[in-house]
Design brief:
Elements: H1 2-8, H2 19-28, E1 49-52, E2 80-83, E3 95-97, H3 108-147, H4 161-169, E4 179-183, H5 189-228, E5 236-237, E6 246-247, E7 250-251, E8 254-255, H6 256-276, E9 277-288, E10 293-304, H7 306-327, E11 334-336, H8 341-348, E12 361-367, E13 372-377, H9 397-406
Parallel strand pairs: 5-6
Antiparallel strand pairs: 1-2, 3-11, 4-10, 7-8, 9-10, 12-13
């Protein structure tokens, strides 16, 4: 997969893979439409007028990027007063606040969070159990070395405290240092299968979590890029065309500054999980005196190492906390509701004469002949005005509104 993506970089694709591809296709073909998309959510078919009562959070006069439609921060929402029976023109509210990001990630985000939370609880339990065992063993060894040094048959008393702790806990792992937990049945085929599952089970589960992580982080990254278009001009990420007017510094669908740390984090976590829990196989040969033949025996024992276990637990907790933070990302501002996000983007590209090197921006494009228009533009744009009617531009305003009534 890595090889295919690397060889595919820089080549022009014929499929629309990104929102940037949709914009470029719509700019080259102004009649492009997206089928099968609902125009308006039924529960939002009303006009509203929102006012705000300032309180202790209203210290800054600058509008919040992640705020509600009045422009205050998220904590100010409960001080808003909404009138849904205004005398403004119908038939519906023209703008809607963006939903939380986690509501747009589908089932993958809750699935990933639940699995990661369960794994975190299991890892914390295992780390706590190993820590309690190592502490009791260390205290017992300290008493033995202090009061009965002559009875030390293991030679631990001759070691320093750090070396003694590593010996008792399994340290960083390895064949001769890992801490044995249990032995599997001798000369049993089921023991070999169970040994394979124990050695690789944690890494397989993490590989599944990593796939979900990459998928969701990609969505979060794309959402962040699109939300920034409301505040400053940016170049589109596009795969169907090449040139300096488009953002093409992506590797394997993510920016390098995001992908490389995630890959390094994944490699480290895989390594620590492999060192934390292992099964060691011992094979030896005996001579059968009755038959005079050599008989081979195999035995597997489950071992663990404290340091990799504690580090992998910290990494899994860090991954879980990072996903909770990323999935709670608050989408910014409001969007016109007349066509839905995809249709607004496609319709807005009729305002683009060219894709400048400085990028394009999303916002209010001003008045048409009857209603306001919103979308992407290579020129200057204004902020979206909440509760204003957005219904396209040109001579077809009335037709657009009529088709909206029918929908």
């Amino acid at each position: 997969m890595v090889t295919v993506n690397l060889f595919g970089r820089g080549r022009i694709k014929r499929q629309l893979l990104t929102f940037g591809d949709v914009i470029v296709a719509a700019a080259s073909h102004c009649e492009l439409r997206v089928q099968g998309e609902c125009m308006v959510n039924a529960k939002e078919s009303y006009r509203r007028y929102c006012t705000h009562t300032c309180h202790k959070h209203c210290k800054s006069q600058e509008e919040s990027r992640t705020g509600e439609e009045v422009g205050h921060c998220q904590k100010c929402k409960k001080w808003n007063s909404t009138n849904r029976f205004t005398n403004e023109s119908q038939p519906t509210i023209a703008t809607k606040s963006k939903r939380g990001l986690i509501s747009n990630l589908g089932n993958t985000a809750p699935t990933q969070i639940m699995i990661m939370t369960f794994c975190s609880i299991c890892m914390i339990g295992a780390s706590t159990a190993i820590l309690a065992f190592v502490r009791m063993s260390s205290q017992s060894q300290e008493v033995t070395c202090k009061n009965y040094p002559k009875y030390d048959s293991t030679g631990l008393c001759k070691l320093s405290r750090t070396q003694r702790f590593e010996k008792i806990s399994g340290g960083w792992g390895g064949f001769n240092q890992s801490l044995p937990l249990a032995a599997l049945p001798l000369d049993d085929l089921h023991s070999e299968v169970l040994s394979f599952l124990i050695s690789n089970g944690a890494q397989v589960v993490y590989s599944f979590l990593y796939l979900l992580l990459i998928y969701n982080i990609t969505l979060v990254s794309q959402e962040h890029d699109w939300s920034m278009l409301e505040h400053k001009p940016s170049r589109l990420r596009c795969t169907t065309v090449t040139g300096e007017s488009f953002k093409q510094s992506y590797l394997l669908q993510l920016p390098k500054k995001i992908l490389f740390p995630i890959m390094a984090f994944s490699v480290l976590t895989h390594w620590m999980l492999g060192e934390a829990l292992q099964t060691q196989g011992i094979i030896w040969r005996d001579n059968d005196r009755s038959t005079g033949r050599h008989v081979e025996h195999s035995m597997y024992r489950i071992t663990c190492a404290a340091y990799p276990l504690w580090i992998s637990t910290s990494l899994i907790l860090l991954m879980t906390g990072g996903c909770w933070w990323a999935f709670r990302y608050r989408r910014e501002g409001v969007i016109p509701q007349m066509y839905g996000s995809m249709r607004v983007l496609c319709a807005a590209t009729t305002q683009l004469d060219d894709f400048p090197v400085t990028g394009i921006q999303w916002g209010d494009l001003g008045l048409g002949k009857r209603f306001r228009h919103a979308g992407l533009s290579s020129g200057d744009v204004q902020r979206i005005i909440p509760n204003e009617l957005y219904a396209g531009v040109g001579d077809d305003d009335e037709d657009v509104l009529g088709s909206f009534h029918e929908e």
